[in-house]
Structure formats: C-alpha cells, structure tokens
Amino acid sequence: MYLCLLFGVACAASHHFYYWSLDRRPATNQIKMMRYGTILAFGAKAGLSAAVIVAFRQRVWTTVRKRFMTVGALDALFSATEDSQAVTSREMVQSAKVAALLAAYVWLAPLVVVLTSNTLLVVPRRVEIREMCPGVRTLNFTFEETYEWRKPPKIDRLFEIPLSLWNTTKESEKDTPEWFDYYTAPNPSFQNTATIGSFLEEAVMRKNAPIETCGSGWSCSFEIQFIAPAYKCTELGSGVDSKVNNLTQQSGSIAPPFNMDVLLPKGKFTYYAFTSGGEYSTTQMKEVGIGGRPTMNPPFPKHLGAFRTEPIIWLGYVTLADALSKANDTNPPSVPSSPSDPAWSTSFVPHMFACENYESNYTVRINYTDAAQSTNVTKVTYLRPVINTTYTPHIDANDGTADNVTAVPTANYILPTSVPQYRRTAAYHSLGFMLRDQINGTVGIGDDRDDLVNPIANTKAIQTSRLLDYGNNYFPFPDIQRRIQKFYEDIILSVLGNPQFASVVWAAKPGEQSGVTFNNVPLDQEGQNNRPPPLTDEQRAYLYPCTKFRMALVYKFNARLLWIVYSISIALAVMGVVVGALALRENGGVVRDTKFSSIVAATRGSGLGRVRWTDGADGGVSSVGNGTVPEEVKGWRMGYGVVDTSGSGGYGDGRLDVGDGMGGGRTVFGFGFEGDVRQLRRTPSLVQLTTLGK
C-alpha cells in the first residue's frame, strides 16, 4: 500500500519534470512526447489507485466485522472496485460510507490521465535566439572624406558612389597646386533613393536583405551605431497672438523669417515651411567652363564653393483646438469653413518651431520581419552643428562669387581646401537638402479666404501622408515636429538600401566598405544567393550579433493545472492510505485481501448450510436463477465474527470441532447470519482472537 502510494507520487513528480523539460522547446516528435507523458500519467494513476484499493480491502474487513449487512450489500461491498453498479448500492453506501468513498476514488482515478493530458499543449510562439548574422551594414561617412571621384574605388566590379557631385577648378591639361573641387549638388543616385523613401514613407530596404541577413524562414533584428546628421528642433511659439522667440544657436541668435500672423486664424496658411534661407548656391561663379571651372584665372575668390551656413527649417503649422481634436468618428468635429463663422478665431491654434542640422550619434534598431523592414532610432545624441554659423539675411556677400549668402562668423565657413571636412560636410548637406526640398512650401486657403475646403498646396509635402493629414482637410499632424525628424532619419537610413554608396560599411568592420555582395557570393539574375560554401574564419569576422526570431510551434506546460489534478488525487490517496492503515491496525496488523482462499476461509460457519443458495431443487442451477443467489436470501443480514457453535457440533463456548483430530476444537471466525456470529467491536487484533479457543 505504502509502496504503491510512493510509486504514484514518484510518477506524478516525474510527469512534472518531464513536461517542464519540454516547456518552450520546439514541438518535435509530438506523438512520441505525448505518449511518454501519458505513460507517466498512467503510472501515477495506477500507483495511487493500487494504494487505495489495498486500503479499501482493509476497510472492507473492518466494516464486516463491525456491522451486519444484507447479502446484497455484502456483494456490492466486496465487488465495489470491480463492478461500477456496486458503488450505487444504497445499503452498501449507507452501511460502509468510508469504503464506498474509497471505491469511488478508484473509479474516478482515470480522470487523472484525462485531465493531465491537457497540461502539455502545442502553441505558436515567438522563438528567439542570439546569433551572429551575415550581411549587416552600417554607415561611416569618413569614407566621404577620402572619396576621390576621379579614381573611384571598385568592389566586385561595381564603383562606389558618393552622396555628392563635384565641380572643379582644375584645368584638364594642367596640374596647378591651387586647384580644388567644390560641391555641386546631391548625387542623382542618392536623389533617386531619397525620393523612393519619401514615397514609400519608410527607409528603403536593401534588396534581399532579410534572406541574406536572417536566413530562410527567420526574421531578425540588430542594433547599429553610427555618426550622421540629425535635425535638432526647438519650439518657438504656440497660440494666437503669442510671442515668437528667436532661435538661439551656438554661433548667435536669429529671428524667424515669418511670424504666426500668416497662419490661421489670422492668416491663410495651415502649413508654412521656409527651408531655403542660406541655401548653398549651385551657381558659385557666373562664368564657368566645363566641369564648373571658373573662366577667370587664379587666384579664385576665397569663398568660392564654401559652405557658409546650413539652412534652418522654419516651420509654422496649425492644429485644431482641443475640443475639435478630441472629436471622433461618432462625434465628428464641426470645423468652421470660413472666417465669417464666429468660431473661426477660436478653432485654430498656430505653432512654430525651427530645426538645425547637427552632427549626431545614432543608435538604430533594424528589424527584418517576414521580408519587411522596420527601423527604430532608439537614441540620438546631438554632437555639434554641421556648420557652426548663423545666417545673416539681407546682407550682400560681395566676395567675388555668385553666392550671396552671408553668415557669422566667417571663420567657421567650411572651405573646399579643407578637403576631408569639406567632403563630409557636403555629404551632410546633401542629406539635409533632400529633406528640405521635400517639405519646403505652403498649404493654405485661397486669397479670398472664403472656404477652408480644398486647400491650395505649393509644396512637395503633399505628395506623401507623412506630414499632412489627408483625412483632416490636409491639416498638419499635431506631432509634425517628430515626423520631420523621422522623415530625415528614414532618408539617412535609406542610404543603407544601396550598399554601393561609399558610406555603407560592414557593421562588424566599420572601417571597411561593404559593396553589394557578402563573402564574395554575388546575386544571380533572379536576385537569390547562390548556395555558398561553408564560411571560412575570415568570412566569420564579418558576422554581427543579432537576434533571430520566428513564429514556431512549441510546447507549453501548464504546471498549475497538472498539480491541481495531482494534488487533489494525491491528497485523496493519502487519506485513503491513512484509512487503510487504521483498518490494518484494527485487523491486528494482518493485511487482508479478497482472494478466493480468503473468502473460503471466512465462510466456514455451519449456519450457512441451512440456506438454499441457488434456485435449483438439488442445489443445481435453474434456468430462471442463472446460478445467482435468490432475492429473498440477498435480504438476509450477515456479518463476520466468531461463529456461534451452540447446538451445531461445538462445545457451546465458541469452540467448533472442525475435524482437526485434536478433539478440543478451536475458535473459528467466519461469515454467518445475524444471531449466528458474535462481532467484537473493539478487539485488539484478530490474531489475538484466534487464540481464545486454544
């Protein structure tokens, strides 16, 4: 009994640890794993049931020693763990409640297997692993500093591309020491990439990047760091008739080029962006030859090709008042359509901010999920202005060039003779120019200010839904400041979409340009990688830490449900064993069972012979009775105890001559009808009782 209980508990614990070892693991060999779990569940059920069955048997003998029951009730009692109908015997349940509960436990024990089988499930779950991924790239604009467009570097037969185009003062047949190159405009390849990103409204993804980096069937993410420009924005004013502050820069202070009176409700614009103040002039000299070489003889003007200042983004925009902005689809806002409406002056809130182009330290997380790219700039640390000057409008340069931009201090101009600094600044300027060109302009109502519907747009910003809310009459989004910064971030990250750009490098080796291939395995015409050979140690040096993930079927272990079932089952089994132990103690420590020999030994009472146990006239089996005990006999009450031998071949003192040849007889225990046996309710042990007649 005790060993069976321990075996059942051990199987339950093993079941837990087995399922626990499978938790969150890929769901492989599902049928095999489930079968092992079912075997342990059957073992737990078998052990606990066996312990209770042994306890039940001890309780049965204790019960029949203490009370008389009908033959039918005794039939039900002795067969309660084998015949399900026996458990429903009303008299048996009333006369042997504890034994009936133990039998009920045995019949309900299979529920352990049923209920615990549902504790290990197969569910879809995101599986993550830390890996080293190939093909991860980042940006390093120091390669713009050293780029020589006359002898461009080549990787795998493809030329590296700078972000900028150049003019020169050098004569084709002469090599004078005072010649230099100067900036012209953003490279057309970069303009195409930035424009595509603008229309996609996200960073341009490198072709086949998810497959190359994550591998087939996987998504992945990784974090890169690099230095690039970023726009640092400052709020200057908000509200009708509010004071608009000047923008304070490291090099000085500058007033906005417009005031908020141009915005609704006083003005006619809902969006007003001025981004060209101090813009680098593509016409540096009025008279130039091929390649932008000035026709004049050296020395050239000191500020020819100089980056004098980086244009500031000045942006005024209008949002709806709080009561209108909080309206929803079921309660649409009632926006006044013309200035004649009394609510016109209180329905619109003008705002203004300015953004400076700063060299910044980026931390970016790039995610490839299901062949789609998403980017998240997690941190931007502003380092220094791209050009540390303050634009001074309405002041003529008069410096011999066609660029009439002036700024202070002039000592901070970036001159083309400072080649590394100048070329990096040119790359930053090209990046900023593409953003400024996209957002410059206005959106507003007509000059007559009669109707707010169908606004008039004079800006490329209308081409995308990044900044203007198409569903709200083209009003700017309230978070337009952050949206502009995100727009710029996507332009910069779009450079990664074409590894042919000179500033694209390996993330694992930022000092090495990447080109468009990985490990010298070129893309075929279908855009798929040829099957590469195993990576060499040199190739492994280009692997970069990443997190790979995918949705996969994994095992999920519900330990709580498992132990709810097992704790109830074990607790009831322990209670049953305690009952069995107490019954065993009352039985004198002798383990009783219901074997055939035990039943025969308990049915030696001579009084049982006076009853006809079958329906046959000669003790045979009749066709009606089918060998069963007649119903009238089943109603007789019987019990187990000391057989009364008075007048039945005994000595009148409980001793019965059983033919042992000793002549003295001995005390006999057995079943008998009520009145034929004496039941001893509080006997120390049956072993002691058997010695009474000796």
Rg estimate, integer Å:
48 Å
How many β-strand runs?
27
Helix content: 25-40%
The overall pLDDT, averaged over residues, is: 83
What profile does the largest beta sheet have?
9 strands, antiparallel
For this structure, the quaternary state is single chain
Task: Give the overall shape.
Answer: elongated
Tally of helical segments: 18
Q: Which structural class fits the helix and strand makeup?
A: alpha+beta
Low-confidence stretches: 520-530, 617-627, 647-665, 682-694
Distance between the termini: 33 Å
Q: How much of the polypeptide forms β-strand, as a percent range? A: 15-25%
Report on this structure.
This protein is an alpha+beta fold and 694 residues long. Among the domains are: 130-522, no CATH class; 608-694, no CATH class. The protein has 18 helices and 27 strands. The strands form 9 sheets. Strands 2, 8, 11, 12, 13, 14, 17, 18 and 22 form a 9-stranded antiparallel sheet that branches. Strand 4 and strand 5 form a beta hairpin. The longest helix is centred in the first third of the chain and has 37 residues, at 30-66. The chain starts with a helix and ends in a 5-residue tail after the last helix. The model is unreliable at 520-530, 617-627, 647-665 and 682-694 (pLDDT under 50).
Task: Break the fold down into its secondary structure elements and pairings.
Blueprint: H1 2-22, H2 30-66, E1 69-70, H3 71-78, H4 90-95, H5 97-108, H6 111-116, E2 120-133, E3 137-139, H7 142-145, E4 154-155, E5 158-159, E6 164-168, E7 181-186, H8 188-200, H9 209-214, E8 219-238, E9 247-249, E10 252-254, E11 269-274, E12 313-320, H10 322-325, H11 344-347, E13 348-369, E14 372-385, E15 390-391, E16 407-408, H12 419-439, E17 441-444, E18 456-459, E19 468-469, E20 475-476, H13 480-494, E21 504-506, H14 537-540, E22 544-557, H15 559-586, H16 596-601, H17 631-634, E23 637-643, E24 655-656, E25 666-667, E26 669-673, E27 677-678, H18 686-689
Antiparallel strand pairs: 1-23, 2-22, 3-21, 4-5, 6-7, 8-13, 8-22, 9-10, 11-12, 11-17, 12-13, 13-14, 15-16, 17-18, 19-20, 23-26, 23-27, 24-25
Helix pairs in contact: 1-2, 1-15, 2-5, 2-15, 8-13, 12-13
